[in-house]
Amino acid sequence: MLGACESLHARSSLPSGRSEPELKDGDETELVSVAWNQDYGYFAAGTNSGFQICKCDPFKNDIRRENTSGGFGIVEMLFQCNILVLVGNESNMQYPPNKLLIWDDNDRRYMGELSFRSTVRGAKLRQNCIVVILEHKIFVYNFRDLKLLHQIETLANPRGLCCLSHHSNNFVLACPGLRRGQVRIEHFGLKVTKLISAHDSHIACLTLTLDGLLLATASTKGTLIRIFNTMDGTRLQEVRRGANTADIYSIAFSPAVQWMVVSSDKGTVHVFRLRVRVAGDVSSNNRGDQGLVMAHQNSLISLDALVSPNMGSNTSYSSFMKGVLPKYFSSERSFAQFRLPEDTHFIAAFGAQNTVMIIGMDGRTADLPGHHADVPRRKLAIRQWQPSMLRGFFTNAASIL
To answer: Which of 148, 187, 294, 296 has most Cβ atoms within 10 angstroms of its Cβ?
Structure first.
């Protein structure tokens, strides 16, 4: 499954004389964490005794490694590359949570490590860099030689919130700012920093499109999800998950940025129809920093290129009553919903052909019909609902509105 990643050449070696913990194939163990790769084709699962890499469609457990010294609380992939980033959990006797490891699964060896004075809260990968998130700082390292490139101060960030763009020609990073509800956007190629006052409450979840031009955020209140233009910070759309406070677990855009899926602790996964689109060839892999400059200039002139004139059936009837009804009634509602157990942590994303994929930190089968596959013996399940089923939910949701 994992091919050689020739663009990555980090070769910082372990200290001389240090033995590497033995990794071997083993039985399923208890799940600690789950993270999608960048195109949602795979996900990485950290366990209390190692890690697993799983393919989503069709479901397949491709790699399972056990570590005799303990488990990993963070496992991050770079698309389908053989290079992984691992951070030990509290049970790992040799590699504690303040140490980040670079693992080459082709050679079955550690290529390097980074140590910190405090716990690593998160890690993100691009082809040319590693981003390490601590509670109050974010460090950006060159992947080739592990040289520190950037250092960012943040408000307390225990969730390790940070997201990256993944087009090769432009590098955008989004993270919490220094004020409550603020998001900091770094356009490193343009050397532009943008601060967005996204919410009144603290940021709970955020995500970028692959090109980094659109940002979606949710606060600890969890009632609204907002979408912003990262070049000028303009709010483009606001959707409502519900009226009651919720803990937002995940937000994901569909590949063509037509839909957005949101999961929370309320046991409901919402699918929203988006009215935002990127002008011209913004979504092209070849646009680069020059294209971003043009997009920035266009965004300062008019937002019409980013907001579709046809809002479609996703717009609630009450949205036409803005200024008359309270703000609660003016936010757009979800186009479809999936009901799931409330006591389980679920993360959601889009698969091929707008399939909605949901991973739960349990082993129960789906309550709704559709394809699903479970990893045996508790703790991990992946659910998929095909487009035909989604259309049924969309029709029902639209008729209610």
So the answer is: 187
Query: Could you give the 3-state DSSP secondary structure of residue 124?
Result: strand
Q: What is the helix, strand, coil percentage profile of the chain, to 5?
A: 10, 40, 50
What is the Cα–Cα distance from 308 to 346, expressed in whole angstroms?
31
Residue 299 amino acid letter: S
Indicate left, alpha or beta for 324 from its phi (over 0: left) and psi (-120 to 50: alpha): alpha
The per-residue pLDDT of the chain, averaged, comes to 76
What tokens appear for 382 in the block?
A: 């992946």
327-352 pLDDT per residue, tens: 444 568 888 888 888 878 899 998 87
Q: Starting at the edge strand that comes first in sequence, how are the strands of the sheet with 192-197 ordered?
A: 163-164, 172-176, 182-187, 192-197
Query: How many angstroms separate the CA atoms of 263 and 269, rounded?
Result: 4
How are beta strands 268-273 and 122-126 bridged, if at all?
Answer: unpaired
CB-based burial, 157-194: b 16+ in 10 Å, e otherwise: bebbbbbbbbbebbbbbbbbbeebbbbbbbbbbbeeeb
